[in-house]
């Protein structure tokens, strides 16, 4: 078929069960949605109409390239000499929540939402979130450096607000909310981070802090185990398979699966 229209996408979202009001966290692959007339702008417009004026859209707008310890950064700088690496770090643009584009790995829709008039973005230099709607300020207002994806981050607020998650052409292997489980483990590995930010004086500055060492390699299997335990609505939006689920229900089900089993008590 030809290009999908904004109206086609709105119909797909309605059939999937996206309702006006509330908070919707979107993770999307526009490549899988297929060709859309007016591109990412039309997809965002369809989502905004689906949640209505009372609804709030949220996207992950991370910039892992800004961390000297991230796999992305290590991959980009692999093989550089000491002098070349120093020059690379000097040339790195500092993170500015108002202007820094999100990583290409986040997808075109995240960047479209970030740039939308009225959108707000949290200030974490590596794991920011952007939100658009009445609850945008409440979701993004504070993002401590040590709380990349923790209970005191925008992701934790999505959990607290009872947000729904829309997986649009994506699957559980990239389901960011599962990282909330990492903060429930007292023995979770930690590491030192360094990120370049725009300082209060408008000049670049380095921020060094300690946070959790993240690993999402098990998310795909975790998602397959969680799927039968929660109510998931399935459909198609454009050409993409789509799923709609309560973020809190998915995280709670994953937490229950990960909880240690108490030993049986014998009489």
Spell out the key features of this protein.
single chain, 267 residues, alpha+beta, 7-stranded mixed beta sheet, two-stranded antiparallel sheet, 10 helices, 9 strands, disordered C terminus, EC 2.3.1.-, antibiotic resistance
Brief digest:
This protein has helices at 6-16, 30-33, 39-51, 71-77, 82-91, 108-115, 136-140, 154-160, 219-226, 247-258, and strands spanning 23-28, 56-60, 120-121, 129-132, 164-168, 190-198, 204-212, 232-237, 240-246. It is α+β, with helices and mostly antiparallel strands. A hairpin with a 5-residue loop joins strand 6 and strand 7.
| DSSP summary: helix tally | 10
Level of helix content? 25-40%
Oligomer: single chain
What is the gyration radius calculated from CA atoms?
19 Å
Query: Strand arrangement, largest sheet?
Result: 3-4-2-1-5-9-8
Tell me the series of helices and strands, N- to C-terminal.
HEHHEHHHEEHHEEEHEEH
The parts where pLDDT drops under 50 for at least 5 residues are: 261-267
- Tell me the fraction of residues in β-strands, as a range: 15-25%
* Average pLDDT metric: 94
What does the main sheet amount to?
Answer: 7 strands, mixed
Classification by helices and strands: alpha+beta
Measured distance between first and last alpha carbons: 68 Å
Task: Describe the global form.
Answer: globular
Count every beta strand, where a strand is a DSSP E run of 2 or more residues.
9
